[in-house]
Amino acid sequence: SGIINDVKKNGDKAVLKYEKKFNQNNIIVPTVKSISKSITGLDQKVKKAIDLAYNRIYKFHSLQKFKNISYTDNLQNKLEYKYLPIDSVAIYVPGSTASYPSSVLMNAIPAIVAGVKRIVMINPGFKGVQNPAVLYAARKCKIKEIYSIGGPSAIAAVAYGTKKIKKVDKIVGPGNSYVAAAKKEVFGDVGIEGMTAGPSEVTIVCDKFSNAEWVASDLIGQAEHDNLAQCILISKDKNLLNKVKLEITKQLKEIPRISIAKKSLMNNGILIYIKSDQKIIEVVNRIAPEHLELNVKNYKQLVSKIKNSGSICLGKYAVMAMTDYNVGSNHVLPTNGSAKYSSGISVNEFYKRISYINLSKKGIETLGPSVITLANYEGLAGHAQSVKKRIRRN
Predict the structure, then answer these.
(1) Which one of 76, 96, 182, 378 has the largest count of C-beta atoms within 10 Å of its C-beta?
(2) Any catalytic annotation for residue 185?
(3) Looking at the domain that runs over 201-340, which CATH code has it been given?
């Protein structure tokens, strides 16, 4: 796009131009002093909540480390497969209407566990003022490089580099549709996460034993994220569906983001009556929701047959709102049906893999003739020759 090319060509000058235009901001790099000052004013309770979430997310993600593979065959050929961390990563953390310190933790901690040396945070702030909880979470993650910029111009800055900002190898993290489009545009020059992270989604399956008040609050909790959030409730019990409907109307009056939640439920809220468990499983697998709550007594029977979902909450106490913060699992999950072929952010997102091959003399002499046959068949005489020469000389 024009913005991306402008930043590529004009660097910091272009970044500042768009910051002034969209955020009334003329700061690219906030000072350590201003960050510390902002953090000092943060409520102690919020700091403690971030600390708890950090520890639990770190614990669960530290179990995700991959083991390197080494294999030696009977010809003494050695094959290895090693996981190495990506050198540098930028995390995009949205600013503007809402600030999410939890987003910092969910994107940065897997990178820390993988061993990424340089983690950069881009987080826009109106007039350059960033959210103190976001800054505290970044400091907790030991992020040294923080830029108070946002939008497509910020994506371009970290993808291609400017005088003030060194380019990175990969960009992760949620943003609005402009940010998502910019990430897709720079992909290939840098890496981005391998999934679609769009408007939030929840599918809840409930039965006659479910608590209608709880289920309604789960749906509203999802709906308040975004006008485009998708909320689906499935049950074999018509009576419960009606109870939940009444509860939603009652509870919507109690929450502050009423307009967003109301709009989202009116446009994208669906109640589905399904007669059999088999059909419920089919429908859930077809939806492939970002979040799935199995708020049913027989969840153990259902869960073994569900193949497509970003994360699955089992039983009546496992609620999506908990998984968004401090249970330990990641909340950056595939949306829009992409859970059929992709997964949420994990430590794997920040590794690359290298194969190492060490052939023995016996190995090339035994396997080489077969390679020569295939190379000649494919018309690649040069390949065949490079093998032939080694066999002949040895």
Answers:
(1) 182
(2) no
(3) 3.40.50.1980
